Amino acid sequence: MRMHPFPVATAFQKTELPCGLRIVTETIPSVRSVAVGLWIDVGSRDERDEEAGISHFIEHMVFKGTERRRTHQIAQRIEYVGGYLNAFTTKEHTCYYVRVLDEHLARALDTLIDLVFRPRFPDREIEKEKEVILEEMKMYEDTPDEYIFDLFEAVIYGEHPLGRPIVGRAETVRAFNRAMLVDFMMRQYTPFRMVLAAAGNVVHERVVTLAARLLRDVALPAGDQRVRLPVPAYQPAKRLEQRAVQQAHVVLGGRGYDMHHPWRAALMVLNTLLGGGMSSRLNQNIRERYGYCYNIYSFVNLHSDTGDWGVYMATDPGRVERVVALVERELDRLVREPVGQRVLTQAKNQVKGSLMLGQENMSNRMMRLGRQELYFGRYYSLDEALAEVDAVNAALVQEVAKALFAAPLFSRVVLLPK
């Protein structure tokens, strides 16, 4: 067992168990709760084509019974002590997490490890859950301001798994069976790809001792043979689709930076300036000045080896070209003109405030711990993150705008009423 001590002045510690699972904790004695998450470094991008949606499907299925507990017992075990249990799947990660009072830490850990390492996958429940997932797909397709992002990612990443919806496709979900679920977990849910993150009123050594004890009788998959498919070169494209909607929904954007890029902080500042709130340029100049949109904003997605950025807008179908032209004008303005110091300072304060306010929630702290360990293999303190934002200047923001906001690099997805 290797210990990775942090300076005593911080509340962060890390231990790697012999099986390869990493445990990271942040101790905050002033609270009475603890958030615990079991992270797996596997998501929808790690699925074979015939497995599309299986990560998300497994995330649902582990709650349908384990070797020790039935479905209702899993929920009751946490809810009856006032806690909260949930899970989510992203393009690159799967996370199962609990928030409870600190006195129920052992119960939380036992529940998480039971879910992830002892699911039963009953055939009857698999067939029922297929119908649930198919209904979830319909829900997304009936929600145009969510569905359009599936279309956008398909344009940005093409046939690569990053271009597929996390929920998969109807034909692949219908084909899932128990053998496929077990095979995927044995290949992908290896301890070397797992991080147990805990934040709140916890003692690191107790988390390590409890986890080691709970894993003692678990048959753990060995090795780590995963090689992620490289992302293909970006080719800007356009896509138009018609559906039974009332508004036109548009996403304009392109490829961006990955999680490790040195200009990552500058991109976040630029995104805030462009469309990160009510005071952003898009909101002030398109919604407030012209009244063309109720909802307009920009976004950034950072992955381990790639990323994307874009602008989402919803408007009257007859105004699409006018609104897109206004957005492109704002993008071009950021390319041509350096941002004023006062505006830059306001945007940086907005980014820093969001970072700091998020740390007042134990679940957010746990999420930050888990993601950092998976992406960087180390802890980034809040001071480090704030320093990166402080170092951003107007010249760097303009360089990022020049690199990403050139018109030939844009892809456009439009969802129009039939």
From TrEMBL:
InterPro entries associated with the record: Metalloenz_LuxS/M16, MPP/UQCRC_Complex, Pept_M16_N, Pept_M16_Zn_BS, Peptidase_M16_C
Cofactors named for this entry: Zn(2+)
Highest taxon of source: Bacteria
Domain Peptidase M16 C-terminal: 176-350
Residue span, Peptidase M16 N-terminal domain: 22-168
Biological process terms in GO annotation: proteolysis
GO terms, molecular function: metal ion binding; metalloendopeptidase activity
Family of the protein in this entry: Belongs to the peptidase M16 family.
Protein name: Insulinase family protein
